[in-house]
Design brief:
Number of domains of chain B: 1
CATH topology of the largest domain in chain A: Aspartate Aminotransferase, domain 2
Strand content of chain B: 15-25%
Radius of gyration of chain A: 22 Å
Number of helices of chain A: 14
Helix content of chain B: 40-55%
Shape of chain B: globular
Number of strands of chain B: 3
Distance between the termini of chain B: 41 Å
Structural class of chain B: alpha+beta
CATH topology of chain B: Sufe protein. Chain: A
Radius of gyration of chain B: 14 Å
CATH class of chain B: Alpha Beta
CATH class of the largest domain in chain A: Alpha Beta
Number of strands of chain A: 17
Largest sheet of chain B: 3 strands, antiparallel
Oligomer: heterodimer
Largest interface: A-B, 18 and 22 residues
Structural class of chain A: alpha/beta
């Protein structure tokens, strides 16, 4: 099926602007994706017709705000294939992981083990480190293969009967490798452990069938998935969420309050203390609907076609080396590379002069940088609205960076 | 715009690697990391009895701006009193803020002024040398 990228691009107003006198080629989608009119309109509609607090008010605006907020929860639930009341709105993906680390982590005992992989974003390392320090837990790293994948062959030597949770990236924010979730879930189930996936880099690439994945927790960020900033999602199995204590205290998350005794509201409200980010949640709901309406067979084919074009172009640059899978199998369009004798920041700065926005540095994945003995990479992340001109501009910039520095 | 930033003198300074390496027996040494980008600078300095910086060396794992800055700093600091580092630091900051042109190769960093996110790349070698001298 053909995919009309020009039509899709028109839904993103920002793509019409220029940068440094040239067209914008936005390939920093892994850091923050751009936002379509459908999302901007949904937020504007709330802000201009229904701006009020949720859950508490009985007036018309409060009713409309509450309905829009809960409809957004339903949109997210549909996107993940789960029940509405298992979806918790958080401040972001980092906040979602911290919620599990602090709340689920509080149920763990000294000596219990948490398994993380070497390719994790710091947001899936630091919260566990903090809990481990406090509660006497042990963190066990899963190694990474030479092509940037979580090495599931190492699961038997890392997972044991003290393992309580395996928490890994669904898709690496550096290498683009898709985790072998089935192998990880099987290893966890064999010892009665739970599995959490950090879906920050997976969610922007279409609906997710969480029941089929068989995991226990899933987290993702709104701003990487065409939604607003300041919103994220934690999904958890209902029986797990019901057994977990609140992460933060405040309004809306209680059953009853006296100075002697407080009871908690059931999930998801138990984990949404205070006034939530209402407009961003509504925007994220719209983003999930927008993604749900796309033909992901066609979009996926388009994205991976661009990925191949990018990888082929880099293969022609002698000093370029991909960090991650060398082919399209088992990866998404997150592409990291290094250039001999050119620092990633210098590459990114040269690319900026070509109108190309990429991310350069350690990508908050220092253990992975150490694994490959590099200081950082230059990373291009492809979204549905990218086209050949974006990839070609990047390749032209890379050739200029090599010419200038190598 | 990167043409202005990576002009010939900056690229030449970075590529020259003048003063790059480690001293066999430094009086003082310190490493400083930029936690945001992972860049790392180690500065070694040898001081005489009067507190003059008689020899400097730098090891940079960083971008061209950071490398160029380390080269320029080592050249300007050579033979100066360690108390002069503050003045050198103020001078490079003035270049980055646009309030002074800077002397010698410090002037080469004027185009960095427009790139606030890159100022720290230039400053990191100064931080490393300051840490070394404070620890000496």
């Amino acid at each position: 099926m053909s995919f009309d990228v020009a039509s899709l691009r028109r839904q993103f107003p920002i793509l019409a602007r220029s940068v440094n006198g040239t067209a914008l080629h936005y390939l920093d989608n892994g850091a923050s994706a751009q936002t379509p009119n459908a999302v901007l309109d949904a937020v504007r509609t709330y802000e201009t017709t229904a701006r009020a607090n949720v859950l508490r008010g009985v007036h018309a605006l409060a009713e409309a705000a509450t309905e829009a907020y809960e409809n957004a929860r339903a949109d997210v639930a549909r996107f993940l294939g789960v029940a509405d009341d298992e979806v918790i709105f958080t401040g972001g993906c980092t906040a979602a992981i911290n919620l599990v680390a602090q709340s689920y982590g509080s149920l763990l005992k000294p000596g219990d083990e948490i398994v993380l992989s070497v390719l994790e974003h710091h947001s899936n390392i630091v919260p566990w480190y903090q809990v481990a320090q406090r509660a006497g837990l042990k963190l066990r790293p899963l190694p990474v293969t030479d092509d940037g994948r979580i090495d599931v062959q190492a699961l038997p030597s890392v997972v044991n009967d003290r393992t309580r949770l395996i928490s890994v990236a669904h898709v690496s924010n550096v290498t683009g490798a898709v985790a072998d979730v089935a192998a990880i879930v099987a290893a966890a189930r064999a010892v009665g452990a739970k599995v959490m996936l950090d879906g920050a880099q997976r969610a922007p690439h279409g609906p997710i069938d969480l029941p089929a994945l068989g995991v226990d927790f899933y987290a993702f960020a709104g701003h990487k998935a065409y939604g607003p900033n300041g919103i994220g999602v934690l999904w958890g199995r209902k029986e797990l969420l019901e057994a977990m204590p609140p992460f933060m205290g405040g309004g809306s998350m209680i059953g009853s309050v006296t100075f002697e005794h407080i009871t908690w509201a059931p999930p998801p409200r138990r984990f949404e203390a205070g006034t939530p980010p209402i407009g961003p949640a509504i925007g994220l709901g719209a983003a999930c609907r927008w993604m749900q309406d796309l033909d992901w067979t066609a979009v996926g084919s388009h994205e991976m076609g661009l990925t191949q074009r990018l990888m082929d172009g880099l293969a022609d640059v002698k000093s370029a080396r991909l960090i991650g899978p060398q082919g399209l199998q088992g990866r998404l369009p997150v592409v990291s590379f290094v250039l001999d004798n050119v620092h990633p920041h210098d590459t990114a700065q040269i690319l900026d002069s070509f109108g190309v926005a990429v991310r350069a540095g350690h990508h908050c994945a220092q253990p992975l940088m150490d694994r490959f003995d590099i200081t950082g990479t230059t990373r291009a992340c492809i979204a549905p609205y990218n086209d050949n001109s974006d990839v070609d501009a990047l390749l032209a910039g890379v050739r200029e960076a090599v010419r200038r520095f190598a | 715009m990167s043409d202005a930033l990576y002009h010939d003198r900056i690229v030449a300074l970075a590529k020259s690697r003048a003063g790059a390496g480690r001293l066999a027996a430094p009086t003082a040494s310190a490493r400083r990391d930029n936690p945001l980008c992972g860049d790392r600078v180690t500065m070694d300095v040898r001081l005489d009895e009067q507190g003059h910086m008689t020899e400097l060396a730098h090891e940079v794992r960083g971008c061209a701006l950071c490398q160029a800055s380390a080269v320029a700093l080592a050249a300007r600091a050579q033979g100066r009193a360690k108390s002069d580092l503050d003045a050198l630091r103020r001078e490079i900051e003035a270049v980055l803020n646009g309030t002074a042109d800077g002397e010698g190769d410090f002037a080469a960093f004027a185009p960095v002024r427009a790139y606030r996110s890159r100022h720290d790349c230039v400053i990191l070698p100064f931080e490393a040398l300051k840490a070394a001298l404070n620890g000496s």
